[in-house]
Design a protein that fits this description.
Beta-Lactamase, disordered N terminus, alpha+beta, single chain, 24 helices, 5 domains, 6-stranded mixed beta sheet, 754 residues, flat
Length: 754
């Protein structure tokens, strides 16, 4: 391989040799010639003189085809993957001087963009080798650590010149630093607090450190570690301020006023008690014996006396709190303590006690609670801000699956991750440097132009406010809209002014498709329900006509031939009449079930007492025949259709009267209770009860739990009840056990007050 300047003319060769980009020339004889930049890259890779070693296999194959095209006189540009960098490259292959000229341009590494963003956020970053030596630092790291880039480069975590401590002041050994732990375990170590000495200011700074290992492909072995750290000294100062405030308030508590007193071993309170007299204004004659209890607030006397007697009887220490009347008549919250003083034989000689005024203590406690809450709020705000910054930088470095744009104040794209490029069909190179709004956010979903002043992203660039948009569109390179949701987070400069924004975008195409399918399913279900109700109504209505014909002719046969045929024929006629009656009852029930809720009748205010009086009239015959009783306590009013509600209550009462126990008269009780926006109505009977496994089944249509010979009916009553309740927006359920009666609960909307 020859020097490039020797292969071309003197001037052209000098120019090509001086280019910062790698350049190579393939002569007609097949010999390669490279400039200094290309030679340096090959030497760095130990690739000898193989120009193709700079590229991945598939990129090298495309270059070989481009060289063949150039030899035929065609110029080609090829996007390639370079083995020593993550950024893509662009190679221009053109015919030149009877040979082929290749020019490589390497795109800007996304890591450089990330480092600029982290410098702007004042987040420090170091990249360390497997032995923890610092290989590279960003611009913010020297300022945070107080050392120059030269002083930092080459230093490892075990260097004795580091001065690091834990928050409690204990030394922070180098082998426990987050970077060493991440290298050793291959796991990310997050948010570790660390104090470091800052030489320029001769002060201690507090950091929050996260270490992210870079693993050898296919292994858990770390080949590098990236450490991100932020200065959280302000938060640490706030915490120290909170601790000092607690100490001040504790001193205030200890300085509160106190009353010292003594008592006999049996608990008798003898004079003189100077402190007690001065505070309460009681005379020795008033507080002697048990008279001291008169100075205690009447509501607190029972507990005070109980605690005092327990202490005297058990000879244990006395502790209680009560309100004590001061000489001016004001009751003051006090804490009373007493201990037994014993003689040399262990017998109690006296009790020595103290009353402590708790007013100042409680005021101090409340002030401390308020201060702690304020400090905690401030700490939480700083913590949340730091967490947001750390999360953002981590997403940048780990190539999050969501699309991410970085924008400058003019709305130009400064960063775009691969997920954003895939989502919108552009290359990262095409997006960077372009106006984000003009490129992907220029129109609404319906095709109307998206004015820049209306764009939430542009508004954030102007006012620095975070915005969340749940539904919008961005435009794909192929011209179709991509449904998206996004969050716009502003970045700020050192003066607090908006310096750009970060946009996190999510493709919601699948979510919208699922929502549309759900809407279609709901519409189909509603249409199906309407069809079923219409079918039930028409079927039950049309079945009555042939049934009337059968019933009429059956009655004619019975009247004309009753007794003229053999007994078996008479029995058959009876079976036919009974079947017609049951069929007519079944159709009527089915028709009633289908009619529930068919008409959009306006709901009205209905007092429950009026419903119960109407229902009682409906079951009067059953009550008189069976000797049953019905009573109710229903003072509330509900919102509903009176006719349906009367049918509902009548069905439930009739159910309780019909399924009565053989050994006692039937009794049904109805009550109501207000529960928020609903009234719960309870219908309780003393009948035969229902086993738990049938509680849900009884509300189904045509469900019967007994033979028709035992209890008449078609199994429609409770199904109609459930439909009426659900039509009013309530629910109905059952509590029952065999031989213990049944209790039906239902909820109906409460009527507004008149």
């Amino acid at each position: 391989m020859n020097d490039l300047s020797a292969a071309a003319g003197a001037d052209a060769g000098a120019l090509l040799a001086a280019l910062p980009d790698p350049v190579a020339w393939l002569g007609p004889d097949g010999a390669w010639t490279v400039n200094g930049a290309a030679a340096a890259r090959l030497d760095l890779l130990d690739a000898g003189q193989d120009w193709q070693a700079l590229f991945s296999d598939d990129s090298a194959a495309r270059l070989r085809r481009a060289v063949q095209d150039a030899q035929a006189g065609q110029t080609t540009r090829v996007t390639v993957k370079i083995v020593d960098t993550a950024a893509p490259g662009l190679v221009t292959v053109a015919p030149s001087g009877g040979g082929v000229l290749l020019h490589l341009h390497v795109a800007r590494d996304p890591l450089e963009v990330a480092l600029e963003l982290m410098d702007g956020l004042h987040l420090g970053l170091t990249v360390q080798s497997p032995d923890s030596r610092i290989l590279m630092v960003n611009g913010a790291a020297p300022d945070i650590l107080g050392l120059s880039a030269g002083q930092l480069t080459g230093r490892d975590s075990l260097d004795p010149r580091w001065q690091a401590i834990h928050p409690d002041g204990r030394p922070f050994p180098g082998d426990t630093h987050p970077s060493r732990v991440a290298l050793r375990t291959g796991q990310v170590v997050r948010d570790v607090p660390m104090g470091i000495f800052h030489p320029p200011s001769e002060t201690w700074r507090w950091l929050q450190v996260t270490a992210i290992p870079r693993l050898v492909a296919g292994t858990n072995e770390a080949k590098q570690v990236t450490t991100v750290f932020a200065d959280v000294t302000d938060r640490y100062v706030l915490q120290r301020e909170m601790q000092r405030s607690e100490q001040r308030f504790r001193s205030l508590v200890e300085a509160t006023s106190q009353i010292v007193w003594d008592a006999h071993p049996d608990g008798h309170f003898p004079p003189p008690q100077p402190g007690w007299e001065a505070f309460t204004g009681q005379t020795p004659g008033e507080y002697g014996g048990a008279g001291w209890l008169d100075a205690v607030h009447p509501d607190d006397r029972p507990s005070t006396l109980r605690d005092w007697r327990r202490a005297v009887q058990t000879e244990q220490h006395y502790l209680t709190e009560h309100r004590l009347r001061r000489a001016d008549g004001t009751y003051v919250p006090m804490q009373a303590r007493a201990v037994a003083v014993r003689d040399e034989n262990g017998a109690i000689r006296e009790w020595v006690g103290i009353h402590t005024d708790m007013s100042a203590v409680r005021d101090a406690q409340q002030a401390l609670i308020d201060l702690n809450a304020d400090l905690e709020r401030r700490v939480q705000e700083r913590t949340l801000a730091l967490a947001d910054l750390t999360r953002f930088s981590t997403l940048l470095l780990t190539a999050a699956g969501e699309g991410i744009f970085g924008l400058n104040p003019d709305g130009m794209t400064t960063f775009a991750n691969p997920a954003a490029a895939r989502m919108l069909g552009y290359s990262v190179e095409r997006m960077i440097g372009a106006s984000q709004h003009d490129l992907v956010h220029h129109h609404h979903a319906d095709g109307r132009p998206y004015e820049l002043r209306e764009c939430p992203i542009h508004q954030t660039l102007q006012d620095g406010q975070t915005r969340r948009v749940e539904q919008d569109v961005m435009w794909h390179a192929q011209g179709h809209a991509v449904p998206v949701a996004y969050v716009v987070t502003p970045t700020h400069d050192e003066n607090g002014q908006p310096s750009g924004a970060v946009v996190m975008v999510q493709d919601i195409t699948e979510r919208e498709r699922a929502q549309e399918q759900l809407r279609e399913l709901i519409e189909n279900l509603e249409r199906s329900n309407q069809d079923l109700e219409q079918f039930a109504y028409v079927a039950s209505h049309d079945l009555q006509e042939p049934l009337r014909t059968i019933g009429s002719y059956t009655e004619l046969l019975a009247r004309r031939y009753q007794g003229q045929l053999d007994p078996r024929a008479d029995q058959y006629l009876h079976y036919m009449q009974d079947a017609v009656m049951r069929m007519r009852s079944l159709i009527q029930d089915l028709l009633g079930f289908a009619r529930v809720g068919r008409h959009d009748t306006l709901l009205e205010r209905v007092p429950l007492d009026d419903l119960l009086r109407a229902a009682a009239q409906n079951v009067r015959g059953t009550l008189d025949d069976g000797g049953g009783t019905l009573d109710w306590r229903t003072p509330h009013a509900v919102l509903g259709q009176p006719s349906l509600l009367i049918q509902l209550i009548t069905n439930l009462i009739s159910n309780g009267l019909k399924f009565r126990a053989q050994d006692r008269p039937a009794h049904v009780q109805v009550t109501s209770h207000l529960e928020g926006e609903f009234v719960r109505v309870t219908v309780q009977d003393n009948g035969i009860g229902i086993a738990p496994e049938y509680h849900a089944r009884v509300f189904d249509i045509f469900q019967r739990l007994h033979r028709r010979e035992q209890y008449a009916g078609n199994g429609m009553g409770l199904a109609i009840c459930r439909k009426i309740v659900e039509f009013h927006g309530g629910r109905i359920w059952l509590e029952s056990a065999p031989a213990q009666g049944s209790t039906f609960h239902l909820t109906l909307p409460v009527a507004p007050s008149q």
